[in-house]
Write a structure and sequence with these properties.
Distance between the termini: 34 Å
CATH topology: Rossmann fold
Protein name: Short-chain dehydrogenase
Largest sheet: 7 strands, parallel
Number of helices: 12
GO molecular function: oxidoreductase activity
Keywords: NADP, Oxidoreductase
CATH architecture: 3-Layer(aba) Sandwich
Number of domains: 1
InterPro entries: NAD(P)-bd_dom_sf, Sc_DH/Rdtase_CS, SDR_fam, Sec_Metab_Biosynth_SDR
Shape: globular
Family: Belongs to the short-chain dehydrogenases/reductases (SDR) family.
Structural class: alpha/beta
Length: 313
């Protein structure tokens, strides 16, 4: 067994003194994305839109994709105060033809990208495992007869397989951030999974969605490992959010009074120990940390207000 030796005091001091006084440890420098080119799939609504707005407000040029033109155009921003923008490109990246189309449109505008955030996804419904007789026969009827295999396949196609194809399709543009864009590192990837991909409960029978999100976590680890093994420098990480307002989780973001009754509802009904859903600030802080830290790859970041901790008991 190899035991790591502590860093000598002189070396540790040199580590920090090398950047002291340079401004590199100031918050604006630590999380600087000004001038970056970012792609956020499914960026017209929900957490994708939160991500796009946060990045654009800090000077990034953000391309958002989606199948529906209306929310994309509503989200587009020509120029923010810090010079960022949100640019809409209608495309269905849930299939290879749509990915090819999006790549062609992107290549016509940009020579590199700094970040790819695979955010698109679906939750297509499931049979409620609790809404039947809790016997082998009852469970078999509910979960076999009542489930649609096509929904499983569709869920995996969009939530997992399309992340694989989108990432590899845009890999040359990610690599070009360093070789063409002269940035310190190539572009990096953030895949969106869920706390549902980690929990051991089916959440009332949500086997298809939870299994697809678990697969997304493993896919992210494999991508990170294979890119590192080949010395590409392209980092891949995965975010596992809990309950945030979105198209899949109907929570009024303004209805967060902090009152005892409201907090109790989120603790008891939703199982969130912190007594509230996540918000835009929580999520933006998570994303900025992952995309700017050049020493993080192959990890999943859980941001769930303690839901998984509560579910473990």
């Amino acid at each position: 067994m190899t035991i790591s030796k502590p860093i000598p005091v002189a070396s540790a001091s040199a580590l920090y003194s090398s950047v002291a006084g340079t401004g590199r440890l100031q918050v604006d420098s630590l999380f600087d994305v000004a001038g970056w080119v970012v792609v956020v799939t499914g960026g017209g609504t929900g957490l994708g839109l939160t991500t796009a707005i946060a990045l654009a407000e800090n000077g990034a040029k953000v391309y958002i994709t989606g199948r529906r033109a209306e929310p994309l155009q509503a989200a587009a921003v020509e120029r923010t105060e810090k010079g960022g923008a949100i640019i809409a490109i209608q495309a269905d990246v849930g299939n290879k033809e749509g990915i090819k189309d999006f790549r062609s449109q992107l290549e016509a505008r940009e020579k590199y990208i700094n970040v790819l955030i695979n955010n698109h996804g679906v939750s297509l419904g499931c049979a409620d495992i609790n809404a039947c007789e809790q016997t082998p026969e009852g469970l078999s009827k509910q979960m076999f007869d009542g489930e649609d295999l096509d929904k499983w396949i569709e869920t995996y196609r969009i939530n997992t397989a399309s992340y694989h194809f989108t990432t590899f399709a845009l890999l040359p543009l990610l690599a070009a951030a360093k070789t063409v864009g002269n940035f310190p590192e190539p572009g990096n990837v953030v895949n969106l999974s869920s706390m549902s991909g980690i929990t051991r409960t089916s959440q009332r029978g949500q086997f298809n969605y939870n299994a697809s999100k678990a697969a997304t976590i493993l896919l992210s680890h494999m991508q990170a490992a294979e890119f590192a093994r080949r010395g590409l420098g392209v980092r891949v990480n995965v975010v596992c959010p809990g309950y945030f307002p979105s198209g899949m989780t109907v929570i009024d973001p303004c209805n967060n009074t902090g009152s005892d009754a409201h907090s109790s509802e989120f603790r008891n009904k939703w199982g969130i120990p912190f007594g509230r859903p996540g918000n835009a600030v929580d999520y933006a802080q998570c994303i900025f940390g992952l995309i700017t830290n050049q020493y993080v790859t192959g990890t999943e970041l859980v941001i769930d207000g303690g839901w998984l901790l509560e579910a473990a008991f």
